[in-house]
Amino acid sequence: MRIVIFGPGGVGGYFGGRLAQAGEDVTFIARGAHLQAMRNLGLRLLSIQGDHIIHPVRATDTPAEVGIADVILVAVKAWQVPDAAQAIRPMVGPQTAVVPLQNGVEAPAQLAAVIGSEAVLGGLCWIVSFIEGPGIIRHTGVEPHVVFGELDNRRSERVEHLYQAFFRAGVKVSIPDDMTAAMWEKFIFIATISGICAVTRMPVGVVRSLPQTRQMIEQAIQEMIAVAWMHDIKVSDSVFDWTMAFIDRMEPHSTFSMQRDLMAGRPSELEAQNGAVVRLGKAVNVVTPLHTFLYHSLLPMELQARGQHFEGMEL
């Protein structure tokens, strides 16, 4: 299989690196200093489960020179998906599987609008990781786990082949019975904990321990479950307990990409996480007061990071 990683950051760099290390035919689409470091020094994965160096690395900033891929893992930030959809078009053929690994639930539709629904799978992943420096991915928490499948839940040949590739690489991999429900269950977790950790500027160990912020976590999860059910998404009856248990198992120092981006003054996934909860709730007349508070509280920082000018102020 010819596998392309579009966006080798904390997610794409880690999972693509593990596939390449296992001998899969992997090409990374990268840019700037990260691309140069990968070409010259290889890709370093610094992980709580053991370090790896992948060298040489096949990497380019020109998708058109890659040719048609069997699989494209789209691992850019959620707000970059529409541009990524345009950029990957030269690599998409009749049998290509495009797997989005972003936080949120809107990426498959955004990709399908550009490249066609037949190419797009559902996907998600579990990992706490980030780019530590050019050519270096740091994995600091959560057992890496990738989940994907056809959006109509059939067990296709291309899904089976990708499953086997991850299995050979020693990466935990799953094909859910209900792909859309699985994406929503990850969405419930990530929008809740990212938003609360971002607004408090604290790691997960703090917000889950204080009774006041733990109550916020519980309310945020419950709001999202209500939105999911009104959208006819059959999330598990145990999703509340499972999500709380997962949060309680996380390494206490863990932070989240949206939180880190906002705190660093970078554009974030706010619109795809808490903003999406608010929009999706309004669409089915479900009130989401806590997610609305999180979204509105974080929005000024998001707009500032995107260069928004406010009346009477230069930010």
Labels describing this entry:
five-stranded mixed sheet; globular; N-(1-d-carboxylethyl)-l-norvaline Dehydrogenase, domain 2; Rossmann fold; alpha/beta; five-stranded parallel sheet; 315 residues
Give an overview of the whole structure.
The protein is an alpha/beta fold. The protein folds into two domains: 2-177, Rossmann fold (3-Layer(aba) Sandwich), CATH 3.40.50.720; 181-305, N-(1-d-carboxylethyl)-l-norvaline Dehydrogenase, domain 2 (Orthogonal Bundle), CATH 1.10.1040. 45% of the residues lie in helices and 18% in strands. The protein is built from twelve helices and ten strands. It has helices at residues 10-21, 32-41, 81-87, 107-115, 157-168, 179-200, 204-207, 211-230, 239-249, 257-263, 274-283, 289-305, and strands at residues 2-6, 25-29, 43-47, 52-54, 59-60, 71-74, 97-100, 122-133, 136-149, 172-174. The strands form two sheets. It has a five-stranded parallel β-sheet, sandwiched between helices. Strands 3, 4, 8, 9 and 10 form a five-stranded mixed β-sheet that branches. A hairpin with a 2-residue loop joins strand 8 and strand 9 (136-149). The model has no long low-confidence stretch (mean pLDDT 96).
